[in-house]
Hints:
The protein is an alpha+beta fold. It is built from nine helices and 14 strands. Keywords: Flavoprotein, FMN.
Amino acid sequence: MTSNPFLLDSRHGDFKKIQANRPDFDNSSSVPVTKSPNPAWKYGDGTNKKPNEGLQAIEIDPYHPDQRMISNYKLLISGIPRPISFVSTISKDGKENLAPFSYFQVVDHDPPILVIGFSARESRPKDTRKNLLETGECVVSVVTEHMIEAVNATSLDVPHGVSEWAFSGLVATSSSTVKPNRVKDAIFSMEGKLLEMKQLDYGHEGDGKPHGALAIIKVTRFWIREDALTEARDHVDLSKLRPLVQLGGISYGRVRETFELPRPRLEDEMKDESKGLRSILEGDAETQPALDPSKLPHEDLKHH
């Protein structure tokens, strides 16, 4: 007898009782900016903290016969914090759908391109995936703190064609370039059109059928709540956006503070002797491969 690869462990117990003993959610809106972890870091220093030297990495083959698909899933979602998209779609016969997806990312800005990953099997495709294939349009909102309970409610496994708008309590408003409605309550939303639905590999079960899919979406409109948009109309205020990330299990992460690190420019870093880059590139550091800076193209030094 084989175990069900989709079986999730039920280890949360009475969640209401667990939550009752936790501190209240902190609604303060400030997002302080701190120093970077190690302002004195120099080239060649490696990690800014070495608390676990000597510990070894464990190798896992995701396709080993003893490695369950659900174990791969748990490793990925617990090891990779993910932004959460909230996708509004409509079927060819006009049925609306709302659903959250954490297999989501922006991959280009010119043109603006988003990707959404679907892990459902061909035998039970996600409504969002089905609707995108039928109509090719969507509205993607970034999931934020003020809407998370309503977003979570839409993950209910209701029958195809049942709209999540009513029981989520979210407000629908019309879009400009696509048919699906936009979530009026969202702080940052993007209308989009499907460029491609890429079928992915055959997955852990090796049954000869494509399992996952990747939707590549071209953004056709941005919508930003007015108090979250800068005067230059090119930046979203983090203290207003308050985005969430999906972690392992049923856990979410918040952005409570930030730090800044300017992107280095080769010409400037070579001039600053305290950074240690010149000595490394000239071969003075024994632990680094030698590279004569004079062999670097002059234009690279200026414009890299």
